[in-house]
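Quick start: what a row looks like.
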Amino acid sequence: MQDRHTLLQSFMTVRSTSERLCKPLCVEDYVPQPHADVSPPRWHLGHTTWFFEEFVLKAFAPGYQPFHPQYAFLFNSYYNLVGERTLRHERGTMTRPTVAQVYEYRHAIDARVSELLASCTDAAVAAVAPALELGIHHEQQHQELLLVDIKYILWQPPLYPAYSGKAPSPCPAPSGEWQAFEGGRVRVGHDGKGFADDNEGPAHEVWLQPFRLCSDMVTNTQWLAFMHDGGYRRPELWLADGWDLVQQRGINAPLYWIDEAHAFSLHGVIELDPHAPVAHVSYYEADAFARWAGKRLPTEFEWEHAARRLGAQHREDNARHARAQNLFNTLWQWTRSAYAPYPGYKPVQGALGEYNGKFMVNQMVLRGSSVATPAEHSRVSYRNFWHPDKRWQFSGVRLAVDA
């Protein structure tokens, strides 16, 4: 368990980071919700604050009274056991509280949590630490979502405003290498060291057949070849639901592509880097590309096993490890694994049990992390999950084959 000073420092750091991410925004950027999947920045700032108020202050601060009696309804996300809430697609319909009032709310809760940590006994710190640590990691998740949602909000033809003026560096040419793995009985899941979400355990053994994993993610150039070969027009490449989706929505390229040479980014309109990993594609698109390429997507257990093995190789082969670094911090990578509980999984009791467990159906697992993921939030056992049609996430494709 972290001591109270470390907990307070971690808490204040994560809180200030969220506000720093919003500094480039104009006040008008805080409110819109152009898609049901996208939450306004104002809501993210309020929701992460409500999380600490609900699960830390209400539970552990003696005699605590809510900052505002209606904020729980406005900023609760999906915790049914806590109470009623505004519907997800209506988060951008409110003009109140104002952005300034949300910041006032944040700073008041920050002060109250700081006061709680400073004044309570060591035994009370030990009791509050798990909920506070979960809240810190929860806010890190929303920091990533902030950037994902800000990008969609700013995607406004024909203006295409930039969030950041710093242009991305060109990507090196892909190595074209494949890593071979013997398979067999391997251990997966969180090893118990450090923080993990409940869906990352229990650690357990799985059996893997021999496989190979591409050292590179699929690039823009490769995706253009897929498009030019009629990839979006060939039903034999697609799962049935995916084919229906691209037909209904008229999808013929990755999200944010303006044409075959330009795309919208957090830096405004940029030229497509031919060597950069293709981004903002759905599971359906990733699966169709893999079938077109005569390959497949890895399972989440193949991905995790490979990541652990490649990490171990770092001590022996720095060059190979460097090429494997895009397992993390570039794009989340779709796997062919459905999001389901591990053997022996049991959600925590109470409302916090709704954090992960109730979503274990109709979704697919992504592994790794993206450029938007806080560094402290990347770990080899992390299981991200989204419905297979989602494209606004920073998601890409890595291929696998049977050995």
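That is the whole record. Confidence is low (pLDDT under 50) at residues 312-323. The chain has two domains: 4-154, 178-402.
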